[in-house]
Known about the structure:
Blueprint: E1 8-17, E2 21-27, E3 40-43, E4 46-53, E5 57-63, H1 64-69, E6 80-85, E7 104-114, E8 117-123, H2 126-129, E9 137-140, E10 143-150, E11 154-159, H3 161-166, E12 177-182, H4 184-200, H5 204-209
Antiparallel strand pairs: 1-2, 1-6, 2-5, 3-4, 3-6, 4-5, 7-8, 7-12, 8-11, 9-10, 9-12, 10-11
Amino acid sequence: xxxxxxxxxxxxxxxxKSAKSARLHIHASKVLEDARVGDxxxxxxVCLTVTTKDKNIFTADVMNETLNRTSLRQLCHGSxxxxxxxxxxxxxxxxxxxSGHIDGTGVIHRIEKEGNAVWYIIRASAEILRYxxxxxxxxxxxxxxxxxxxxxDEFQVSVIPHTVSQTTLGQSKVGDRVNLENDVIGKYxxxxxxxxxxxxxxxxxxLKKFGYY
Length: 213
């Protein structure tokens, strides 16, 4: 489990590719201070398992399912990636609950500056947008952010200068593809309500009647 608070950006040193998998070699420092083989590190929001490590480089294997669902397939030598270690049990919960399991990708449609903030307007599929709500949480390339607005085909976030400078957002361009992870709570609620409707006849009308809608 992660929080979406990026600890550092690392650099892809090498990628070993096969027909349906890849092995990433990532240069890092802070996230490797106490990392061991088998630990989880999120790279651009994707939960990866450390397979080897030395002082400044760790490797992680990426399977075909992950390559198909995320933007990791677009990485190349020199690419910067957001890195975060799994949250310790005694750590602060600074962002929101992030699993490292990507729901899909979106495309940066516009980048606009407003005072000291930077707005990122991201287009995404209906399957992603259905779980995005204004003032709710979204993880973009592993970064925990608050949704400032949402429409039928895109959503927007307003990002402070610190986050822009300390993550890959500062290097992002219009047209870039980003990994998106929805807040897991919405997905659980949808599934549980669906099951409840089938078993107990709970519907929109039922919830309105008893003041829950």
